[in-house]
Amino acid sequence: MEKILLGKPVAELLDKKSKNAINDYIAKHNKQPLLTAITVGDNPASLLYVSRKQDKALELGVNFNWLSSQKVQLRMRLKKQLRILK
């Protein structure tokens, strides 16, 4: 028998469960969870995907950190230079 699954109510239920889990985490650890995404390149579909993850994370109370490959490479070079200077 076929069954139609409506996405919006399922998404709302998952958001509610996620929000409860996040609130429990915050209460237990006294800090917000952090989600970091690292993108390599500039594929529009990938950038859209990560931007939607960022929106959802912020909506649910999760800090979001988005690093691009260029930023990662720059940080690695800076860390290497700082080690040389020590």
Multimeric state: single chain
Nearest-integer average pLDDT: 90
Overall 3D form: flat
Under CATH at level 1, the class stands as Alpha Beta
Please compute the radius of gyration using only Cα atoms.
Answer: 18 Å
Strand portion: 5-15%
Draw up the topology in text.
Layout (H helix, E strand, L loop, with lengths): L6 H23 L4 E6 L4 H17 L2 E6 H17 L1
Parallel strand pairs: 1-2
Notes on the protein architecture:
- By secondary structure, this protein is α+β, with helices and mostly antiparallel strands.
- 66% of the residues lie in helices and 14% in strands.
- Strands 1-2 form a two-stranded parallel ribbon.
- The longest helix has 23 residues, at 7-29.
Q: Key features?
A:
alpha+beta; 3 helices; Rossmann fold; 2 strands; 86 residues; 66% helix
